[in-house]
Design a protein that fits this description.
This protein has 171 residues and is α+β, with helices and mostly antiparallel strands. The protein has helices spanning 40-52, 133-144, 148-166, and strands spanning 2-11, 14-21, 77-84, 87-94, 97-100, 112-115, 118-122.
């Protein structure tokens, strides 16, 4: 799997819409760096959530990923484009969350409605995979050929090596 593009909206620590274009990386290898709390883990959470409907490390589920900093009008979703086996796929997934309704209550007050969780898989030919959530999740797993656990284990090993590399030397 090779990342192509990641778009997050009101997801994790990102209040608005953020896009990462991985095609701008010419060497084929990139490093995610930043201060504590800058949103590095959120990037991995978003990719894992798009692919497997769970966050990296499995510590949070998608319903917990709506940004507490997002405005009430902002939709929460992750859209991830990647290539696998020379073919390009796009997954758009949103968790269940409360959003501001289009209509007001009878007394004029703001009304909130529950946005149902959803997933959409766009195939290399541009068509949208026709299946319910469970079927779409199974199709994504088939394309990936890997389980969420194997992806997460790889990410954790990489993070651990980076922590060890950047840790101060003990005397």
């Amino acid at each position: 799997m090779r990342p192509v593009r990641l778009e997050m909206s009101a997801f994790g620590s990102y209040a608005g819409k953020v896009e990462i274009d991985f095609t701008r990386v010419k060497q084929g290898l990139f490093l995610v760096t930043g201060d504590t709390g800058a949103g590095k883990t959120t990037i991995f959470d978003a990719i894992t959530y798009a692919l497997y409907d769970q966050t990296s490390g499995g510590r949070r589920d998608g319903n917990m990923m709506r940004s507490q900093y997002a405005s009430k009008e902002t939709d929460t979703y992750v859209e991830y484009t990647f290539s696998c086996g020379g073919k390009c796929y796009t997954i758009r997934r949103n968790p269940e969350y409360l959003r501001l309704g289009k209509r007001r209550g009878k007394d004029g007050s703001l009304r909130y409605v529950k946005e149902a969780p959803g997933v959409e898989l766009t195939l290399p030919d541009g068509s949208v995979y026709q299946g319910k959530k469970r079927e779409t999740d199974a199709k994504i797993a088939e394309i990936m050929g890997k389980t969420p656990k194997s992806i997460d284990n790889a990410l954790q090993r990489i993070r651990g090596k980076i922590r060890n590399f950047s840790a101060p030397v003990q005397k």
